[in-house]
Design a protein that fits this description.
Layout (H helix, E strand, L loop, with lengths): L4 E4 L9 H16 L3 E6 L9 H14 L5 E4 L4 H13 L3 E4 L3 H13 L15 H9 L5 E4 L5 E6 L3 E6 L7 E3 L8 H10 L4 E5 L3 H14 L7 E5 L2 E3 L14 H6 L4 H10 L12 H6 L11 E3 L1 H14 L2 H10 L7 H8 L9 H9 L9 H9 L10 H13 L4 H12 L7 H8 L1 H9 L2
Parallel strand pairs: 1-2, 2-3, 9-10, 11-12
Antiparallel strand pairs: 4-5, 5-8, 6-7
Helix pairs in contact: 1-9, 3-6, 6-7, 9-11, 13-14, 15-19
Family: Belongs to the class-I aminoacyl-tRNA synthetase family. Glutamate--tRNA ligase type 1 subfamily.
Keywords: Aminoacyl-tRNA synthetase, ATP-binding, Cytoplasm, Ligase, Nucleotide-binding, Protein biosynthesis
Catalytic activity: tRNA(Glu) + L-glutamate + ATP = L-glutamyl-tRNA(Glu) + AMP + diphosphate
Length: 448
């Protein structure tokens, strides 16, 4: 395979959700796996609903996931290309004006359905005379423009679905240009894909029917060029099977970030859910990309459960080495000689990254110890060895305490943990004790 060029083309009309991120990740990881290029293209020709604020928010969400585009485009800056393509289609006789109102079209569809016919546009506009078109114009009607589909079956080999086909005769000629002259999604998308030399279009299976239309547009506008290769993946739905929507904010990337989930956990779950691959934690998108295969994607809907995300976030944090998180720790002012050993000690006990602050306070600050058995703790304090301490200190000290007090198991260890950390559970005390240090340990055991 030559180096592919892929794109993610969101409409900046809201915050992207986990389903949108899945499309972006599939394209980005495909580019990574095959040493290709990834373009971010904002399909912002819906001027009423698109905004620069939403576009910037999408870039922020993608960057948080680790997705860095090789190029960024905005369709609002490329309208001249679409107008030229429309003129070419008019010259070919494949783009024609229609004057029906929405109400007229709806009545016609209902009549067709009542007669047992499919509600396909009947191309009545093609039978209008010049005088009839002039009369509509005189009424103040402005045409919308439809692309005239060629009859017959459109076939392609889908990288996920396999050999696929759509009978174009069963489709209405799609509207490409609205009455106000603005473009719908279909034409700008094809024009951009041609201009950007997009080699693979990887998207949700809700676009399968669009493929037949777009392949005919590719043939009309670039007859000498090969059309892109298509791959339509299963859709991500909520845990209850509900669809996801940018408008409702359902499972938005922004909300997942604010809830403290790890970006790599979100990326891994969004990518691996609904595939034959086991869901597992990764240390980088590059690692995820090495095993990414479109052929592993299932045909069944993929259910995304935030409960799984919590588990995967915990597992992801446990994988990280200190260098993976050093800058994030510094942002929390966790610095100095204790930072790295604390991370190694605590990473397996974190539900969210910021939980590390709890253990930083345990080793670096004053805490409220929990002393259940003052007499036992004072006996243990008297046996504290002199410093320097290392990870063998805990075992040596508790062995002496066991011999002196006769305690063992939970009766030995639990009161010491409560006093030294103020928590019922947590990282191994063999690693924490040297970080706490003798002075703090003695004060917490004795209350002094």
């Amino acid at each position: 395979m030559t180096s592919p060029i892929v794109r993610f083309a969101p409409s900046p009309t809201g915050r992207i959700h986990i389903g949108n991120a899945r499309v972006a990740l599939f394209n980005f990881l495909f580019a990574v796996a095959h040493h290709g290029r990834f373009a971010l293209r904002f399909d912002d020709t819906d001027f009423a609903r698109s905004s620069a604020e939403f576009a910037r928010a999408i870039e922020i969400d993608l960057a948080w996931l680790g997705i860095v585009p090789d190029a960024v485009f905005r369709q609002s800056e490329r309208v001249a290309l679409y107008e030229a393509a429309a003129e070419k289609l008019r010259g070919l006789g494949q783009l024609y004006p229609c004057y029906e109102t929405p109400d007229e079209l709806e009545k016609r569809r209902k009549m067709q359905q009542a007669r047992g016919l499919p509600p396909v546009y009947d191309r009545a506009a093609l039978r209008l005379t010049a005088a009839e078109r002039a009369a509509f114009e005189a009424e103040g009607r402005r045409p919308h423009w439809r692309f005239k589909l060629a009859p017959g079956v459109v076939e392609w080999n889908d990288l996920i679905r396999g050999p696929s086909h759509i009978d174009a005769s069963a489709l209405s000629d799609p509207v490409l240009i609205r009455e106000d002259g603005s473009f719908l999604y279909t034409l700008p998308s094809v024009v951009d894909d041609i201009d950007m030399r997009i080699s693979h279009i990887i998207r949700g299976e809700d676009h399968v029917t669009n493929t037949a239309v777009q392949l005919q547009l590719f043939a009309a506008l670039a007859p000498q060029a090969a059309a892109p290769v298509f791959a339509h993946h299963n859709l991500l739905v909520g845990a209850g099977g509900e669809g996801l929507s940018k408008r409702t904010g359902s499972l938005s990337i922004a909300s997942l970030r604010e809830e403290g989930y790890e970006a790599l956990a979100v990326a891994a779950l969004a990518t691996l859910t609904g595939s034959s691959d086991n869901i597992h934690a990764v240390r980088s998108l590059g690692e995820l990309g090495k095993s990414f295969e479109l052929s592993h994607v299932s045909r069944n809907p993929a259910r995304f459960d935030p409960a799984d995300l919590a588990t995967l976030t915990h597992r992801t944090l446990a994988l990280f080495e200190y260098e993976d998180v050093r800058e994030r720790l510094e942002a929390l002012t966790i610095v100095g000689r204790k930072a790295e050993p604390l991370w190694r000690a605590a990473r397996g006990n974190l539900s969210r990254f910021d939980d590390i602050l709890t253990w930083w306070r345990v080793v670096e600050s004053e805490i409220e110890p929990m002393r259940e058995d003052e007499s036992f703790l004072k006996d243990a304090a008297q046996l504290l060895p002199a410093e320097p301490w290392d990870e063998a200190t805990w075992a040596a000290w508790t062995s002496d305490v066991k011999i002196a007090t006769g305690r063992k198991g939970k009766a030995l260890f639990h009161p010491l943990r409560l006093a030294l950390t103020g928590h019922e559970a947590g990282p191994e005390l063999a690693a924490l004790l040297p970080l706490i240090g003798r002075a703090k340990a003695l004060a917490r055991l004795t209350g002094g």
